Structure prediction request, 1299 residues.
Amino acid sequence: MASSSQSRCGSGSAASRLRNAASTFCSDSQPLLADIRKTVLMMKDIAVQLEKDNLPDKAKELEDAVIELVGLSELSVQFSSAVQAFANAYQPKEEFTNFNTLFEDELSRFKANQSSDVPKNPVVRQFKEAVWNVHHAGQPMPGEEQEDIVMTSIQSNILNITCPLSGKPVTELAEPVRSMECRHIYEKKVIMQYLKSKQHQCPISGCPKILQADKLVQDPLLMIEIEEMRKMNRETDVEDYTMLNED
Amino acid sequence: MAESRPPKRPKISRGDDDYMPGNILEIELCNFMTFDYLKCKPGPRLNLVIGPNGSGKSSLVCAIALGLCGEPQLLGRATSIGAYVKRGEESGYIKITLRGDHKVEHITIMRKINTNNKSEWLLNGNVVPKKDVAETIQRFNIQVNNLTQFLPQDRVCEFAKLTPVQLLEETEKAVGDPQLPEQHRALVDKSRALKHIELSLEKNEGTLKQLKERNAELETDVERVRQRDELLAKAEAMKKKLPWLRYDMKQAEYREAKERENDAAKALEEAAELLNDLKEPIMKQKEEKAALYAKCKKVSNHASENAKKRTELMEEENKLDVELKGKYKEMEELRRQEETRQQKLVKAREEVAIAELELENLPLYVPPKDELQRLTAKIAELDYSAKQMRQKKSQAENEINHKKSSMNRIKERLIEMNNKSTKCLHALQRSGAEKIFEAYKWVQDHRHEFNKEVYGPVLLEVNVSNKDHAAYLEGQVAHYTWKSFITQDSGDRDLLAKHLRFFDVNVLNYTGGDGPQREPFEISEDKRALGIYSRLDQIFDAPIAVKEVLISQFNLDYSYIGSEKSDQNAGEVRKLGILDFWTPENHYHWSKSRYANYESAVVNQVQRPQLLLNNLNVGEIEKLSSEQRELEEIVANLEESVKRFHDEERSLLNQSANLRKQWEDISITVQNEQKKRQAIISRIDQKKKFLKLMEERDDLDTEIAKLVDQATKYNIRRFHNAMEIKDLLVEAVSYRRIFIEQRMAFIEFDAKIVEMEANLKQHEKFALQASLHFDNCKKESENCRQDLTDSLKYAKSIARLTPELKKEFLEMPTTIEDLEAAIQDTTSEANSILFVNHNILEQYEDRQQQIEDLAAKLEADKKESTRCLAELNNIKGKWLPTLRNLVAKINETFSFNFQEMAVAGEVSLDERDMDFDQFGILIKVKFRENGQLQNLSAHHQSGGERSVSTIVYLVSLQDLTNCPFRVVDEINQGMDPINERKMFQQLVRAASKPNTPQCFLLTPKLLPDLQYSEACSILNVMNGPWIEQPSKVWTAGDRWSIITGLVGDTHC
Prediction:
């Protein structure tokens, strides 16, 4: 009796510790993903400059690096999910688990599905368009129609330009948070006050999702995307200035 | 009224003096209660002691009781003898004289008492013990504690409370036969003894019967005793086998314990072996866990380094980006600057042309040298003139300073003098001129209105340097003069008099030199020889007008001044023709009569000066004021000169300044013209240089090309950084994957180890238990071995195992249970024989002896009982008839007497068979015709009725009593007048009989119109502050009849 009870306590302890480790791993992965995203943006800027300097070979190398990083990012997300799923379903057994083999199988299964999709990733397409526009502005890329180009160029991960409650642009929010359900962006203080007033529907008109306080996250990717939006706005302003100068 | 009954007894031995033996002849008290001194000689029969309340009647009763060996408690008042000493006194005495057996024999009993509760007894003058006095009193049958004989005031009501039993006792004592109480007590004691003997007899008979019955029962038990003894012997033999059987059982237990010990040792060995087998895998897994931990640590460190590198590369990237942007901005700047340069170049060329044209048009300018020289010479001239003026001004200013210094000194002097003036005015004010200040102020304010100088007050104008001379002058001049004002013009006098009238001051007018010729001042040798050295008109300073007025008004020129020598030779001074002179001590003045040529001399003492206290010189004040005004004028003139010099100097300086300014203006103009030309030339030169410089700038394309190259280099560096960061990111992701794999493996290993350690701990616990079990078994085995040894020793000590004993044991049961059961059965069989003790024969014999002894005693007690009963009947035969006869007599008298008082009365004896202590006397009375005879008690009769009944009973006893005297205190207070009269008559009648003893009746009052017989004596208590004279008559204590001279026919 005592032996059995103690054994169960040990097993429960192991499962709990594994879940904690997995959760910590997933949380710690976020900064790394943000770094990958930041590096991709940096590479895009460098590629544009290199293209302007008539160094297309190096720009090509950067494109390959971007494809590799995007794949790595997706792989990391999948790996985190695999770790989390395993930890939640863990049951102690007599023999030891070979975690390396287990996770390798998961990654192999994911890679088989991934290889055909990476080049079509929106981030990669944005990179290619930026490089192409250096010398071929206004012209469609090879193999793409006009409509596709327009749709692709305006695509972004930021769904709402302004906070629906405070009215501020997302680039001016002090503490922007994003809903994990509908991915809309809000000012943290304002949305928390909104939820306290017994209203739980997303304040974006027409969005049917129900919000929860613990599902509003401030992830590094969100900051990266907002910064990216700021840069796009700045480029537009520069362009306007150039036109004035020409006048 | 019924016919009088004949007397019951013959006349007893009453003496010729009508007194009986034991009667009180005389009572003498000293410092007793309320009495200082009392002497009383009672009569032989009824004595009425009469006195108001608080006069001490009851004190007499107390004295009789205490004097005849009575105890204080008897009286119901104080309980200690010391309390009966009169308040404030230390001691007192009671002296009672009793009649002896003969007329001439007197027995004197004295009791001395003090506040220390001590008594001293004297019998016929001799100090004796108290018991001797008691014996004497007993001889006369005086019983002060008998209520029927001695009834104090405080215990009157107690008599009515007596129970029938108590009443009987008191009656027996009162009638005088001493045998009655003794016989009564003997009957009570013997009756009690008889009851005791009978009770004992009854008890012993019961005991004898029980003893006989018990012995009859014992005969059947003797046989059973022997049977019981045999059974007990058999049980004892079986008990000897018991220890040996226990020894066999212990031996079996020891073998079992030993076997358990061996089993425990084997189990312990197996557990230890298992424990060692389990520990080894745990150690191995712990090593693997440590290895995993090290790997995790290593991977974590690699990841940290990777992150650090990426951070550094990111920072460099940011720096390069900033520099790259800087380069691009620089390119833009260069392009913008080129445009600006071109514009500036064109503008510079135009400016050079304009400047050159301006230079050609500028005319030539010649400076005016002649004009400058002229101006220079004139300026020098003007400066010289101004300098001279400045010197003159300085001289004038120095002079002004000198004059001002002198003026300040004069001003200070005037201030000081004015202060003195103020002091003098104060002196005048104190001497009576209250408004002198106002007058002086008015004159000062209006001085300009006068035609001539006005002096005053005079005190302020006179200045005397010598104090002694001041005293002389003040004494010579009249007081009013010092506060006067002196004018020199009639108009001034009128004006001043008009305005100063309100200030209460005088105005004197000096009219000039028309006065008589004054005697010249000279001191002759004769005068000098006598000490005369001066004259009053010579010793003071003042304005002429003031001086002349004083000399003429007060003859100062005829008053000389001398010394102490002059004082000593006053007569000689007079011979020199001097009529008035002053010395330090005295003032001498001679006056001549115009009619008789008669001279009179007046000598006054010199007074201290009151007004001439300060040296004051009005003239000097005026002089100083004049000097001050003069100096002020001079200063004013000098200041005007200074001002003029100053103005002239300023004018000259202004002219010089103007000319200098003109000169400077011309010079500046010349310089400006030259500077203007030079500026134009300089500007042309500068602009040419600038133009040249602008034309030598570098080529723009070259610069831009350089910047483009730099930008390209920066981009390449950024490219390399980006690729390096990418590699690091790939490595970081790999590190994180490896870390989580190892971390999870570590956790799983740790859980396994925890589980295995728990299992190990379980086995360790099992091993520990096995070890404890082994120790316990070993200890138990040892204990069993010890018990076995002890058991063997014990069995041997009880009975050694001999062949005979073995043979005997074979017949007994072979197991402990069976043996114990057999022992129990045998013992129970023995105990089933029912008797208590084993000494049946001894008890039987003892009881037989007791039966015999008790029978003998019983016979003796029966005899004693018979004897006691006979004796009791004998005494009863004597006592009861006598008592019945006594009660019958009392009843006869009581009934007769009570019939006169009320309706009916009865006295009877309450007999109680053999309970002699319960015999009593019952008094039954009836006060109303329709009532029934009721026992006298507090529940049936009122207080008055009880009093009447009690008194009648007591009076009835007097016919039978054997007491020499009787005392009754205030028994008539509760009666109504009718009963009181009847009672009094009863007492008088009883007292008249020959057999009645001496009686004292105390009462505060008696009813009027009572009939007294010659047997009555009235004793009045003489006590109080107002009866001193009558009390002397009764000092001897004789009766009233003797005192009034009625001696003769009567015996009382």
About this structure: Chain A touches chain B through 47 residues (CB under 8 Å). Chain A is about 65% helix and 5% strand. Confidence is low (pLDDT under 50) at residues 1-9, 145-155, 239-247 of chain A. Strands of chain A lie at 176-179, 185-187, 216-217.
